[in-house]
Batch of 3 targets.
Target 1
Amino acid sequence: MKYNIKALALSRETVLVAVFVGMAMIAPLIHSQLVTGTIVNAALFGAVVLVGFRAACAVAVIPSLIALAVGILPVLMLPMVPFIVAGNIALAGTFALLRKTNFVIAMGVAAIAKFGFLVLSANVILMAITHGKMSVALASMMGWPQLITALLGAALAYMLFERNLVRK
């Protein structure tokens, strides 16, 4: 019996993308930014490791939409959704570019890239559409919690993928 190797490879990629997208979809239902962010960031790192940057881009889109739908992101954060997606893509892209040189440093730089992008975006966008304490409160969601969850997601992904708890 002959097997089509390309079909098997595509099937593996499809299954892995579905797993990571599923993780990203379920995480916001937990209703905790710390837990959700950690899981989503780990899924982004894992997608890059196992199926590549393009697949990670698919994973990057879903969590923000789900978080908005279930109420983790307040409705006033709607204008930030494209920037959150772009921040996720920045994390995945930075990691994909640097991971062959040093896995841990690539994760740290990717986390900082996402954090920096989101802080700048939030300050510009949210300050333009809200005022006073409301803009500060909303912008704070895009600040330190993003860096912390990106680093925790990196640590989780490192344990799973670089320490070979999950086969690449």
Note: The mean pLDDT is 83.
Target 2
Amino acid sequence: MARRRLIGKVTSNKMMKTVVVQVDNSYRHPLYGKVVHRSRNYMAHDEKTCLPGDTVEIVESAPISKNKRWVVQTVLQRAIQISELAPEGSA
């Protein structure tokens, strides 16, 4: 059986080797036809030292802890940090 893969944005990295990934999903309501937007948070094991704002792909895995069942496989896009935007020599 193939493992599920989700793409989401890192919202928190305050735990050791764990990140919280927010996965957004939108679908059309079956009766009313309105587009419904939903988001869900997943705790994922992180060996790649992701930062908040990074876009990552997470893969389903065997349970690692009480709440962790996902692993960060790849970092698709790094977030732009404030220190990168400030020119050198400015305070």
Note: Strands lie at 5-15, 18-28, 35-45, 55-60, 68-77.
Target 3
Amino acid sequence: MLNQKQLEQIRNLGIDEEMINSQVKIFKDGFNYANLSKPATLGDGIIKASDKDIEKWTKIYDEFAVNSRIEKFVPASGAATRMFKTFYKYIENDGSKDEVENILKNIKKFAFYDLLNTSFTKDGKNIQNADNKEILNKIINKNGLNYGNFPKGLICFHKYGNDARTALEEHVVEGLLYAISKGSLKLHFSISPEYENIFKNEFKTLIDKYEKLQKAKIEINYSFQKKSTDTIAVDMNNNPVIDENGLLVFRPGGHGALLENLNEIDADVIFIKNIDNVVPDYLKPLTVRYKKTLAGLLLHIKQQITDTLAYLEWHDSYTEKKRHEIGSFMETYLGIKVPDGIDNTIYAGYIKSKIDKPIRICGIVKNAGEPGGGPFWVINRKGELSLQIIESSQVDPSNKKQQEILKSATHFNPVDLVCYTKDYTGHKFNLLKYRDPYSGFITEKTYNGQKIKAQELPGLWNGGMSHWITLFVEVPLETFNPVKTIEDLLRKEHQPKD
């Protein structure tokens, strides 16, 4: 039972007591593990676009983009602390000397080197005479670049002559290549409140710069992860953790909480891509080619669904030929097999229940050993098969057969999504109705030196989109170049062209 003080606390957060009780119950019972049937593979859940397909779908998208509202959504909330984990460990005398020396040996290859050098000069020092720890401190701490406390989006990733671009700026440049509609580029970033001012300043700088260069209007909006999506923390006995003021302890709900932010975007097509997956200009054409391909396929599927639902609305009976057409489309593209012999009185309702949903087209790359989710055929609680992106933590570690299926995945999810979130009449779906609330994660954390348990909401592209229509399309591995550690910026994909 919550006391009056705690009830007032959750009201202020926009959380009700029923939600608290539900979260505590999940801590006790655990989330449901995914029931994997098999990995999605080429020809069985994953589409391999031919050159003809690419040409066709790109044309569809280009024609659509002229007079439609397109928006690019980029989760950019996180600090870059984990990028510099090697630095922190080394400074605390707990890290690998070899890793740090490789970074310092190549220090001039980083796009932020000129800023770093200037930081030393301002202090009347010479970077050439600095020791290892002094250089690392200059990169991550407030007396220098302060990158350890910056959001990843504001770190310089790429060098262009005497200029350098942050990950954020690269998203603007990339967006200008495929996401302009009605002469305007619309971008939406989810950010953390503590970085609001620095992001706003950067947004203004980029808008001023690229509106002059590209002669296109640029609109950049942002939002915060809502406090109402925070989840309660419990002790190891599943009792709510109480702080020194007698208040409940909450933790952020993970990237699944961003479903609320996505739900508020009103656009015809929404591109979603992680903040750290960008490349220099000379590698962008391939990314642009496949972004348009995915979007064109999305629009092709959406048109088929619209035509089908409109037909069902205006007809009371359906010919065998039309049933066959609808069934063939659903099985070929959506992986949905329509049972034979459905009575005319319930046929339209059945089809609508399967296809009148948000749609996502997911670019998938060949598995190259990166950690993260993959595409699978999954059996839901009704015994139905659907395509889902599944993380390893969603699979029962004690179930040998399930683990074998997990390890047999041929492809990986690089978070390369194009979404349609309106129904066939043009009204927005409430995306919160299409998630699976029983597919989140429970992790162990510490609070005031004690072990606690934290709960993450269903991941944005995992359980958060569980009941969407999903198609997987293989995209080239070259389009996936994430920066998870500082060393990743030394990869050839993030270096200037030779």
Note: The mean pLDDT is 93.
